[in-house]
Write a structure and sequence with these properties.
Chain B: One of its GO terms (molecular function) is ATP hydrolysis activity. The complex is a heterodimer of chains A (about 425) and B (about 375). By secondary structure, chain A is mainly alpha-helical. Chain A is about 75% helix and about 0% strand. In chain B, α2 packs across α3 and α4 packs parallel to α5. The chains are: A mainly alpha (about 425), B alpha+beta (about 375).
Amino acid sequence: MPSRSALLHALTAGEARQAAVVRRRKRLLALAFVLPLLLFILLSFVVPIGSMLWRSLYHPAVAEMIPHTLVELRQWDGQGLPGEPALQRFVEELYALNRERQSGRLAEEFNRAYAGMSSVVKSTARRLGRLDEPALATEGVATLLDSHANWRKPELWRAIERAGRVYTYDYYLTALDLEVDAEQGLRVRQDTQIYLQLYAKTLKLALVITLLCALLGYPLAYYLASLPEHRANLLLVLVLLPFWTSLLVRTTAWIALLQTNGVINTLLTGSGLLDQPLEMLYTSFATVVAMTHILLPFMILPLYSVMRGIDPSYLRAALSLGARPLPAFARIYFPMTLPGLSAGTLLVFIISVGYYITPALVGGTDGQMISNIIAFHMQRSNNWELAAALGSLLLALILLLYWLYDRLVGAGNIRLG
Amino acid sequence: MASHGADTAFLTFSNVKKTYDQQTLVVKDFSLEVARGEFITLLGPSGSGKTTCLMMLAGFEDVTSGEILINGRNITSIPPYRRNIGMVFQQYALFPHMTLRENLAYPLKLRKRPAAEIRARVDEYLALVELQGFAGRYPAQLSGGQRQRVALARALIFAPDIVLMDEPLGALDKKLREQMQFEIKRLHAQLEFTVIYVTHDQTEALTMSDRIAVFNEGVVQQCAPPNVLYERPANLFVADFIGESNKLGGVIEAVEADSVSVRLDDGTRVRTLKANRTTPGAATTVSVRPEKLTFTDRLGAVGNRIQARFVDRHYVGEFIRYHFTTAGGTPLVVKSLNDGSAPHLRAREEVTLAWLPEDSQALDRPAVATTP
């Protein structure tokens, strides 16, 4: 039999149930409070990113337009021309698309898979359109093969078969400047290689911008942190002021400053320092300068708040122990500001890797970054799948860099304040 | 000026003044001579100038005028890193990104000592503060008392001429603080360094110091050993700041060799020791410590007596505090040991309190009488 005190100190079943009910109610209440935010994040963040990843792999457009042809092509061994049934199916489907005025879409898709096919598809569709239904069954294939030499090339049909796959990683290959060749398999793309270079340039520009922000921001944050609180707050407003003016205004201001007949060139040539104006606008130099200006507060703020928290007695202790001011700064103060420096560096670097507006406005062709080419594929070439693949690779790159950072520095070391 | 104390005084403050805003003096004409190995405490309310004096000695604040001499050498223009003064900070200021070993080795490395010597010395000082086996830990992994001991070891390890301590025990709880007071005294006795200790805690100052300089409004009110400070305060501020005291207003009637007779505000005549009020007719405050007031009349003819009415009593534990008021309305406190002799009093009961003339002093009287 349990002792009396043990009975007094134990929870009865009823009490335990009641405690559980109270806890559950509190949890539900807490959930109700965060629910709007959860939904918002889900709709504005998780869903778009998921959709992007999905779209970079899922490409049903061709399969929807010529389904029967693709069924037949699957029987084909890829050597020589596809069999008569496959060609006949294609002729019928192209004829149907032409009558629905959809052959232009197919032309665009084929052109992406095999260069130069846009006009070929369109003209072939027109020639087929002149035939009537019975003639299509008898003369259709001949008309097709006659209308352009490309239709007799096995590699075209192999390209069509690849483009017809609903799930494909081809866009990732394109984004990495790779392609699949029938004989050699995976290989570096022969005609154009732009994306890897662009990724490298994006990383390089982001590094330069981050470095400049750190070099400019660190002394300023140090100065601010050494001021009395009310003066520092006043000056901090000046640091934050750019945040309150439109990004476009600030970027356009750089155009006014940097252009060939802009403020800086006028000053330089007017004072006789230069004979010829410098070409500064529409270069990567302009991108670096304007973005450093725009991202500087992201470096200063975390640095400042970390430096504010450092008791001046640390430096005094170092001095009293016999360290000269500069070594004391390097050995004692600087390591203590690393959490702020890490946070600022990470913020600036990640923001600048994906930056779009400023390079688009002041960068020209030289100062373009990867996000500009993604926008190009979204808006101009209408190749959303490639845009999605490029974007997913960018995301993967940033996650990889963050992982490296965590391994080398430790993410727990980041402090924003 | 520097010469006369050169053989006795190790550290000299000579007419030191300090202003931050070119208008008000935070430290007004501070002079002090400290012998080698002495434990000096600067005591005073916050803003009284004691910490400023410490910072000037350490070299973190300039001296507006005057000199600070160590071994007869003026150090006011020497930068802090060449003064060879150890310092213990209120928040310890242990370098958080360094282990204890690195923290302690830091001043030795700066002095370019050989690695073997540094290692041995760090081990020795860790043992000294009873933290053997903690060398690889970071400050964040230590308790408050342990951090305090490391800070102490770091300030001592490079054998500085003087060790400064700026309210070093302020962040600790009462029990730890008492332990650390003992610890600091032990190290002081063992290593015989010179200490300038700043605190606003008078008990700490009394238990630890060889001499205490009491600061108020930038001026040293009195500099004396603890017992003198407590038993013979030089003025009313010191009597009030150090310990507790009963203050009876009155006028000096007659002056003798070392005592005066005073007529208190309620007409009672008492005899008391002379202090800083010695002219007949001058207004004075007679200060008596609460533990020197007694209920009994055992003191005989020499004792002073005063009538007072009982207000209430507070049970403190080792003693009992009785509150009274005199006929003139002055509050009086009596501390009586809780040894069975403490009487039980009825509400508003009239009693006679007594004290010996040598247990009280005639001090200055502020312009506005402090009657509640």
